Amino acid sequence: MSGDLGVYLFAVVKADAELQLDKVKLAGEHRKPYTITYEDQAMVVADAPVQIYEPSRENLKAHQNMVAGLMNKTTVIPMSFGNVLQSKDDIQVLLKRLYSKFDDIFPRIENKIEVGLKIIGKKEWMTNQAGKQKDLAKMKESIQGSKKDITYYDKIRVGEAAQKFVKGIHFEFENEAFQPLAKIADAAKSNEVIGERMLLNASFLVDRSEEEEFDKKVNEIHEEWKDRADFKYSGPWPAYNFIDVKIKADDAS
């Protein structure tokens, strides 16, 4: 890793945005952010070492807080964590090469926020629901009541039946929660669920004018399902999940 100072990237904003940038602690030191402008766009950056940035709590928090602070003042195209280029000239080249892409993104995310919703089934409810599945219950009883040893294929049969049950609940939550919220949102993504009890893992891009209606719908769904599932509603965030900007090495050369 190098100790040479390069330029760390936080986000792209409109060049005429009125910003008051406070110092940010990055790579162990407080650093003063500033902007580098190309035409009507500007990259918010800070001088920082050219190195691989470990996703430590301190570094991640510094990046996220900076982007979140910018979002409160203007429309923001966030850069992913850990991007650092060698020089200000490299930033100019990057802005020039990606200008048309950024120009296309800005109107799509203007006055919009991203929120996340995870719904996790309560263990007791999930167990009770599984017990009501006749095919699954019969299969388990058959195997448990058998005098022969449980085979590998017996386990597969039970596993497949359990997977079918979980998929059924996921489908239910797609209809009961995701679709009604997606109708209010400007854009929506149903992301991969993690573990058997996570029933929904979604991201929504919401216009600020629809924020109150969206929150109301989330509350309605929560009231209906709160005894059966836990809700994790997060945000507002910049539109990370709705922007496809990947910086490659040759973009800045």
Please tell me about this protein's structure.
There is one protein chain. The chain is α+β, with helices and mostly antiparallel strands and 253 residues long. It is built from six helices and eleven strands. The protein has helices at residues 57-71, 88-109, 123-131, 134-145, 152-184, 211-225; strands at residues 5-14, 24-26, 29-31, 34-38, 41-49, 77-78, 84-85, 112-121, 187-190, 198-207, 229-237. The strands form three sheets. Strands 1, 4, 5, 6 and 7 form a five-stranded antiparallel sheet that branches. A hairpin with a 7-residue loop joins β9 and β10 (198-207). α4 (134-145) runs antiparallel to α5 (152-184) and α5 (152-184) packs antiparallel against α6. The two termini are 21 Å apart.
Quick tags:
253 residues; alpha+beta; 5-stranded antiparallel sheet; 4-stranded antiparallel sheet
